[in-house]
Amino acid sequence: MTRQSSAPCAIGLDFGTASVRAVVVETQTGALRGAGAADYPHGVIDATLPGSAKRLGVDWALQHPADYLVAMESAVLAAVERSGVDRAAIVGIGVDFTSCTILPVKRDGQPLCLRSDFAAHPHAWVKLWKHHAAQPQADRIDATATARGEPFLANYGGRTSSEWLVAKTLEILEDDPAVYDAAEAIVEAGDWLVWQLTGNLVRNACAAGYKGFWTRQHGFPSTDFFAALDPRLADIHARLPGPITPPGRTAGTLTPDMARRLGLAQSTAVGAAIIDAHSAVPAAGVVTPGRMVMVMGTSTCHMLLADRYAPVEGIGGIVSDGIVEGYYGYEAGQAAVGDIFNWFVRQTGDRRRTRGEFGALEREAAAVAVGGHGLVALDWWNGNRSVLANADLSGLLVGLTLSTTRGEIYRSLMEATGYGTRRILEAFDRQRIPVTELIAVGGLAEHSPLLLEIYASITRRPIRVAGTDASALGAAMLGAVAAGEAHGGHRSLRAAAACMTHLPAAQVDPDDRASQVYDDLYREYLALHDYFGRGGNDVMLRLRRLHRAAMSRAGARDESLAETLAG
Amino acid sequence: MTRQSSAPCAIGLDFGTASVRAVVVETQTGALRGAGAADYPHGVIDATLPGSAKRLGVDWALQHPADYLVAMESAVLAAVERSGVDRAAIVGIGVDFTSCTILPVKRDGQPLCLRSDFAAHPHAWVKLWKHHAAQPQADRIDATATARGEPFLANYGGRTSSEWLVAKTLEILEDDPAVYDAAEAIVEAGDWLVWQLTGNLVRNACAAGYKGFWTRQHGFPSTDFFAALDPRLADIHARLPGPITPPGRTAGTLTPDMARRLGLAQSTAVGAAIIDAHSAVPAAGVVTPGRMVMVMGTSTCHMLLADRYAPVEGIGGIVSDGIVEGYYGYEAGQAAVGDIFNWFVRQTGDRRRTRGEFGALEREAAAVAVGGHGLVALDWWNGNRSVLANADLSGLLVGLTLSTTRGEIYRSLMEATGYGTRRILEAFDRQRIPVTELIAVGGLAEHSPLLLEIYASITRRPIRVAGTDASALGAAMLGAVAAGEAHGGHRSLRAAAACMTHLPAAQVDPDDRASQVYDDLYREYLALHDYFGRGGNDVMLRLRRLHRAAMSRAGARDESLAETLAG
Q1: What's the mean per-residue pLDDT of chain B?
Q2: Domain count of chain A?
Q3: Which terminal CB of chain A, N or C, has fewer other CB atoms within 10 Å?
């Protein structure tokens, strides 16, 4: 391909769970010029450590930090090559990354796991977002924060996750204090990546806020809180160095070594990182309050900007400057959406051709008249992570008859996730934070037109679908902002969105007759939601206890059998 | 086969929905000597009348009366031939029949439908038990009986069925008065069959009581009641002639013509008929109070004898002399049992090999620890026909999670039908009518050992399984009673049961540890049962209304489309 003088471009780097994707996007038009992707050589490390036979626990999920650099180099070189863009026209780089994905490093950024003295320590490696071994630590964090009345807890709806920074750090400290002692910094992988690109450690406010208890007003929680968790944690602030910066603010320019490896100019600006899901918000053109972005996949993440703080019931996170500088970023979530549909296909489908079953079920569901199935479901197959914030709630189906069909059940499950979304919207309504339009992103949004129709009529709001590659586009927008207006980029995300986002004109509108029937069904959903979710009948919690008791009896039987056989 | 002098035998005739089965059984041992079966040539008539293009309605189900005689002749000849029994040793014949299956006849027993002037009248044919077109009539019967405080209503738990005698008769009167006017008698097909065998019209107390509002104390309801339903019905008593007799009492001996056709002696005694399900009660050796017979198939029918009358909640029928002379026969029912399992297999299984799926599901269900699935279901897929007596209730499943398996759901559905049975037993308990043991009969009882284990532990009662062919054996016992002790038969059903019933010694016992866990789950079932069944939340009834409204909107759309296309 011949080089030619080009319009200014930014690179967006989207670091996912298994691979990184790079896109080259024109900053003034949003046109995609080229893309490349590369898998991480070690993927998700969940069996044994690299170069070792050491077995990991069942809830473990690690990654190899060198993978990020190797894969990034391949992806960037491919994207730029395919774009045909003059390298000098690439003015900025933005980064989105899974989170909370953290690693312990030395002061100069060297990961502990890459040093020979710590290579055999599992806790020295990158802990991926879905490493779930720190649940006991998360439980203690919630108890301690609740007992002390820590104000940060309200920003997370009163409950924190085992996936987050402090739980994972406490796990390191308790299980392998030598790693904690040697760690001169514990950083988000997205921030570490920006550090490698620029030589500067700049922590992004998005990950720090949504996953690290950081607030613009108070910073990280107090030393007293950490000491109450574990006295050895009193020095944790020293291990969380670096300024905290809204996503897209310039972190620096490429180091000479990185410029050489990526074939780009040293003057290329790099922006502070953002969490991958949150990157879809600016990509969907949402840079001001009023429109909600729903990232719809196995679960759904709802994100919204507002100019004030309000304690929305069951919120997942509220972070000032967390998504777009100058606004509070609100995040809510449904713990299972696509996962429920996957579950249903596994139960009902021909297990040899799952892909075809989704299409068949969606066709059957589409043929059902609104209200015609006589079913209502509660969408709590993975607990309720929003208004009720209770992981031990479970799914419910009511209205089953001998003539109920698979397609009808499937439709009722789709609808139930729509009612769950409506309930979240109402929590915002009650705090007078308006949501006038929904922007859907992600695999479910792209592949299930019926789901969008259902959501539009249930919520009585129009829905538009933002294009594929939303997270990568959002990262490129951050790169354009990092470069700045004077260098062919933009002075703000708002300005970037005006040029780079192109939502399709087509939208899915509510159907008023369907909405009226859904109003009736939603009333039923709400009554069941409150009865089973707010103490009217705690049968779901008792069933979980019965389940756990049966499992532990079965476990004891297995152990005793093993002893008998061994004896 | 060579003829030989034989021990005395009785023939049992079991008239089912599609065929008749004949068995030859030794009266002193219960040994089965031979069996034969024959399909009804016209089967179930639900499309067009024989010899006519006249279309029947969707809820219609008719039969051809001549089929019963033709098929009986084949089945009896085959059974006797195969038995090798000396024809002179056959001392009695008993008959069980589906019910309520009725036909209008002339005074001499000639069916109206076999006369040329009525052959084209659908209402002149045999209306099979599952003819469901008389629902509007049943609704009016319930309303009228309730308004007038008719005492018979309490014998049926306050609700009667569209399948029964008066609803079907009122349907004839309203839709085709000429048939009603020409009908000199309206008789149960079982009684008509005995009439054909003996020349005597003897109505059995079982069908008259369970399906015809007849009580030993008051006979049929009063003329005032019938006149309130429809003034033209005031003369119905004249159309219900003949004595009413407990099953098995001698109705007479074979007519010369029948003796010739069946190759039996004219002296062969014939007993008054019984309903097919109820015939399983004496066959299971239940001829005194205390043990309950469960006929377990697509639905379950529970039958029990008691020496006093008590208004058991949600009872299906209480009839004095209705099953065994001298006792009140109690009947309760679960509207769907096997039907729920069939439904689940249809939703989840490979649709090409349903048979194998049952075995696979039962194995998966058996591997689940008691309480381990964390699920509770309400077994109302076909409404609740027992304690709550509400056909518009529907099924519910609670406790679903992403790790719930097909086998776990299947087990929870089995358990739910067990809780439904326990609730019925408790309704008897509350009236101090004891049930000490369960006898299971029917396809489900024979083919699902897991179901019996679950029922035994849930109800804390031992269960024995009576053999196959229970209804036919019960009919043979009635034949032995009709013949009488002096002729090689028996003087009572109790005496017949002592000789002819052989329950297996093996029984399924409750497992105390399982029972304890089921007690917890049953408490959850009961709380849901009362919440959804007694007005705590009428969501199920509202969902049915939404379903019907959606169906009628869809119907209106179809009609309007048809008009548009026609216009």
Answers
A1: 94
A2: 2
A3: C
